[in-house]
Amino acid sequence: MYRIFICFLLTNGFIFAQETSPQEKIDSNFNQYQSSKSILGIGGYTDYTNKFTIIKQNFIKLEAYTSLIQKYEYLSGTTFMKYSFGGKISFSISPKTNFYIKGRHVSLPFYASQIESPEQLTVDPIFPKSEIGFGVETQIQKNINFNIDSQFVIPAGISTPNPVLTPMIQAKLKTRF
């Protein structure tokens, strides 16, 4: 299996290394990382992610990822294991402003004995959920970023042809020290 993966990486490198002019620069990378979030007394999650990114001329950026999510709730003492996959495409509007479209699918828990209520799956702001959305992110100064996005939460485990999407609007102001 590892030989197939190495062949894929080598082939991928040759595809992006084909004749391109200096103006048509294409970069790609593969990252593995772990992120966690918890709120005391409620619960939290750990997200183990593999992400593949392609950037063309600092104008367009494509991201695809898969992850394994371990969700835990302090009150009930339960732990849920889920998988997730998604993607994001970003377009540079100006040197400091990007427009993006994103999507993510989060599965139901792996085991049938692990049941969550539909209310927790849909509107819980703490834990990852299936969603589609778009937004704008901009850099105000070197260390201050502003992000506003609109996303629609997709109910998990519902197989109706026209599910009811729950809209959410978020604004984030980030600063680095």
User: Which range does the strand content fall in?
Assistant: over 45%
Distance between the termini: 43 Å
**Strand order across the biggest sheet?**
1-2-3-4-5-6-7-8
Number of domains: 1
Structure description:
This protein has an eight-stranded antiparallel sheet with strand order 1-2-3-4-5-6-7-8, with no helix packed on it. Helices cover 12% and strands 56% of the residues. The radius of gyration is 19 Å and the shape is globular. It has one domain. The protein has two helices and eight strands. By secondary structure, the chain is mainly beta. The N and C termini lie far apart (43 Å).
SSE blueprint:
Layout: H1 2-16, E1 26-39, E2 43-56, E3 60-73, E4 78-94, E5 97-106, H2 118-123, E6 131-141, E7 144-153, E8 166-175
Antiparallel strand pairs: 1-2, 2-3, 3-4, 4-5, 5-6, 6-7, 7-8
